[in-house]
DNA sequence: CTATTACTGGGTACAACGTACCCGATTGAA
DNA sequence: TTCAATCGGGTACGTTGTACCCAGTAATAG
């Protein structure tokens, strides 16, 4: 029943942890730490993949085989841990080619598909309510990666920002509608059937009442038979169609 | 810390409540109910507007001036209550003109703007994790309302579905990025400043390191100065630009 | 070497949450 | 009038995040 909010707690603490490898590392008294922040983040992602976004801190502790409160020695709280998990999964495009070598459209499609795959593999990401995005090394690298798609053009900075934001929000918005429902569910296919079976009588009654005129004209039963990926691609493709003239007009001339 | 999930609990119960006015109403023994489902949903929305999506059932009870458990006589649980709240706020376009009298593009823009306003007034809606949408009378009416925009065209049913889904997801995706952060916050403007002040040194250090080549070229400081509404309109406008040729090609000829 | 001191992991405990359950009061139907 | 179903309210339980305390450990100062 619990899904967390993040980015609101203490951004300062999250930031210190996100950029921790850039800080000083002097030796200190006391026992050697048994864990590392990396291991905790990795374990938490594994638990969230299994249990969904409502994973508990006690599950993370159990996954690591330590006491319930031990991980609090490394991470100030759950919100900050989620900030770390989100940044960790923003490592898209690390294996992909440099977008500078691709056409702008192929590049943006690659970014969208890559992001879609991250959401498909970790649907609980879509249930995280980020108040403000906490920018870590990996999310910053991801953003830098996208910007390469615009390198050969002279689009104004503001419009570059608008366009990349749009692509990300199209992917995220569609993913939220289609991918959340499969997260942490025992039998997704039967759940889908049950759901339709429950709705059907009410829908038929409603349409038969004549109060919904346009819905009744929706005859093709295959109209509803579309995947989340189809929906994402349609929105993305039309958006890129609309962006194309502006990109072509701003193509940088070779000097 | 708690944001609920919905659509997963018992859809059957939610549906019975959503379509309750269409069911039989026979008199039964026992005292007259003090409350109605409508009043509870209305009160819950008021509480959520004030406290955010992490509102508690006890707050709803207090808002109505009844005992903590009383509302459970009317609503089986929190998840089902949220289903009712979501459907209640799907009453868009009730005061708007019939989309059949408008151009398709004006119609879709109207729907997008109306949805945006609902999210602006009730940002907690964006934090609700709907597993599957539970279709009630109001959300069905909203969908029927959108379909009117395609009445004068011969677009295939499947593509109508794809296009409307795309518009809704563009609005929802952008709203989620920009509107959640202001939900249930004491001082949104100072929070924004604090957040940037916390990030700035890390960002500067990162950019100065040269690891993020394209980010460094982002010179115009105004590039980041955009509102959520700007971002939504840009994504929507480019999408509609891309949809336009297909809509024009499918315009129904007068017989 | 010893004493100091910071830091470790583990355990207990608390407040807030959703809600199962029980109870006395109330009211329509037989 | 009697019966039974339903009402509002109160108590209590399990689960959550996490504040706090404690005993053990290891680097450093003398």
In short:
Chains A, B: Pfam families: TetR_C_1. 2 copies of one chain form a homodimer. Chain A has helices at residues 11-18, 37-51, 57-64, 78-88, 104-121, 137-147, 157-179, 188-208, 213-216, 228-249, and strands spanning 5-6, 129-130.
Describe what this molecule looks like in 3D.
2 copies of one chain form a homodimer. Chain A is mainly alpha-helical. Chain A folds into 3 domains: 5-88, Orthogonal Bundle (Arc Repressor Mutant, subunit A), CATH 1.10.10; 99-182 and 225-249, Tetracycline Repressor, domain 2, CATH 1.10.357.10; 188-224, no CATH class. Chain A has helices at 11-18, 37-51, 57-64, 78-88, 104-121, 137-147, 157-179, 188-208, 213-216, 228-249; strands at residues 5-6, 129-130. In chain A, strands 1-2 form a two-stranded parallel ribbon. In chain A, α2 packs across α4 and α5 (104-121) runs antiparallel to α10 (228-249). The longest helix of chain A is centred in the middle third of the chain and has 23 residues, at 157-179. Chain A is flat. The relative contact order of chain A is 0.12. At the A-B interface, α1, β2, α6, α7 and α8 of A face α1, β2, α6, α7 and α8 of B. The first copy, chain A, binds a DNA duplex (30 and 30 nucleotides) through residues 1-2, 4, 27-35, 56-58, 66-70, 72-73, 77-78.
């Amino acid at each position: 029943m619990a899904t967390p909010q993040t980015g609101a707690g203490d951004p300062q603490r999250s930031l210190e942890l996100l950029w921790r490898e850039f800080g000083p590392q002097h030796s200190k008294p006391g026992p050697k730490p048994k864990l590392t922040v990396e291991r905790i983040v990795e374990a938490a992602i594994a638990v969230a993949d299994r249990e969904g976004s409502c994973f508990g801190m006690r599950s993370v502790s159990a996954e690591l085989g330590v006491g319930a409160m031990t991980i609090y020695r490394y991470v100030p709280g759950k919100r900050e841990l989620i900030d770390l998990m989100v940044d960790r999964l923003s490592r898209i495009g690390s294996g992909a080619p440099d977008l500078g070598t691709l056409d702008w459209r192929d590049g943006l499609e690659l970014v969208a598909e890559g992001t879609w795959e991250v959401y498909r593999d970790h649907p609980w990401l879509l249930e995280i309510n980020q108040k403000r995005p906490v920018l870590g090394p990996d999310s910053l690298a991801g953003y830098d990666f996208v910007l390469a798609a615009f390198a050969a053009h002279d689009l104004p900075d503001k419009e570059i920002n608008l366009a990349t934001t749009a692509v990300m929000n199209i992917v995220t918005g569609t993913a939220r509608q289609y991918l959340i429902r499969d997260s942490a569910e025992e039998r997704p296919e039967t759940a889908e059937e049950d759901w339709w079976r429950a709705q059907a009588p009410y829908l038929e009654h409603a349409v038969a009442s004549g109060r919904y005129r346009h819905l009744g004209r929706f005859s093709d039963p295959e109209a509803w038979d579309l995947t989340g990926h189809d929906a994402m691609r349609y929105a993305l493709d039309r958006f890129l169609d609309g962006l194309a003239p502006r990109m072509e007009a701003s193509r940088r001339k070779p000097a």
